[in-house]
Fold:
Amino acid sequence: MSQSEIEYRTPATDWQTLAYWEGCGRGEFVLQRCGDCGVVQHRPRGLCAECLSSGLEHFVASGRGTVYTFTVTHQNGMPNFRNACPYVLAYVDLEEGPRLMTHIVGCEPDEVSIGMAVRADFVATDKGLGIPRFIPA
Ligand SMILES: [Zn+2]
Structure:
């Protein structure tokens, strides 16, 4: 059975996350790099999670990664998800290092595997923002 779309809402933003969500709206996966220790981090924050520096810079990442692990959700009664079942919830290891929780779309749930190469894909929302999810690379 083909996956239906999750009904994504416009992300709630603040000063720490706006550049990330705006990047998603442009179809770019934006990460933060610490100017002091060099660590790349995700989720976006106001400080480096490694050394607590505020010297963070944003950069456009490759958007490529591999599936670390995943599960197939067959039941979810939440209004924005109930018509999308079954859908794939996964952890993806980004090429730049961070691991994030996301959805895998663009294939059947039983085609997803650990180690599978994926790339970011985006759903535009209003306010020029977007939501990332991943598709087979
Ligand atoms: Zn740092």
Observations:
- Helices lie at 18-26.
- The longest strand covers residues 64-73.
